[in-house]
Write a structure and sequence with these properties.
Blueprint lengths: L2 H13 L1 E3 H8 L3 H13 L3 E4 L2 E4 L4 H6 L3 H13 L6 E4 L3 H13 L3 E4 L2 H6 L6 E4 L3 E3 L4 E3 L1 H8 L5 E5 L3 E3 L2 E3 L3 H17 L8 E4 L2
Parallel strand pairs: 4-5, 4-9, 5-6, 9-12
Antiparallel strand pairs: 1-3, 2-3, 7-8, 10-11
């Protein structure tokens, strides 16, 4: 996403609905260029196009957080993606920055992504990336799954890297955070990775509190 498209997205989310003509005047480009940008942004699930205008998506938790510090999150996602190698299997939890990272990886790397986030899975529907969605108790607001079934699913996979949402603290081979279901989910993911890979290999954990 270039700087003009970021500006367009910010305007759409601020105004909730804005015409192609207004976007063209604000961006200093033609309406044809704006329509091309809107087509791309809609394809990537950032907004919705209607006749002559662009409309912000209905806000859920992830969509609302996505626009907070968007440019910074995008840079962080690009940096995190640079640490991932082709052919790796990556576990990505929920979170707006994690969603950006997932899409960046799916578009530029040959990886398999495992996630508990239905939001992230939907975000990647137009990509060629292999996506595995784990089972569990579905939380409608966050569009993610938690609980014992999720823990069992994670125990069955070998991960090269894990990308977790915020609040994690290291303690031995385990990671902990206040909410029990998510905490246990994270514990199993990391402990499984410890068993599958040598102890001297670096474990990368990226935290996303958003």
């Amino acid at each position: 996403m270039n700087s003009r498209q970021q500006t367009i997205l910010q305007l759409v989310n601020d105004r909730r609905r804005i015409s192609v003509g207004e976007l063209a005047r604000a961006s200093g480009v033609s309406e044809v260029t704006i329509r091309q940008d809107l087509n791309l942004l809609e394809k990537r699930s950032y907004l919705k196009r209607v006749h002559g205008s662009a409309v912000a998506l209905e806000s859920d938790d992830v969509d609302a957080r996505m626009m907070s510090n968007f440019t910074l999150k995008q840079k962080l996602a690009q940096y995190a993606a640079s640490l991932v190698n082709d052919g790796e299997t990556i576990f990505i939890e929920s979170g707006s920055a994690n969603a950006l990272l997932a899409r960046y990886l799916a578009e530029r790397k040959r990886v398999t992504l495992i996630t508990v986030s239905h939001y992230i899975a939907h975000l990647l529907k137009e990509t060629d990336c292999d996506v595995i969605v784990l089972g569990g108790m579905y939380q409608k607001k966050s569009e993610t799954v938690v609980g014992p079934l999720t823990r069992m699913c994670i125990q069955q996979v070998a991960l090269q890297q894990g990308v977790y949402r915020g609040g994690w603290l290291s303690r031995g081979n385990w990671l902990h955070r206040p909410r029990y279901d998510a905490c246990r989910r994270g514990q199993c993911g990391v402990s499984q990775r410890r068993r599958e890979h040598s102890a001297d290999r670096l474990v990368k954990i990226w935290s996303d509190p958003t």
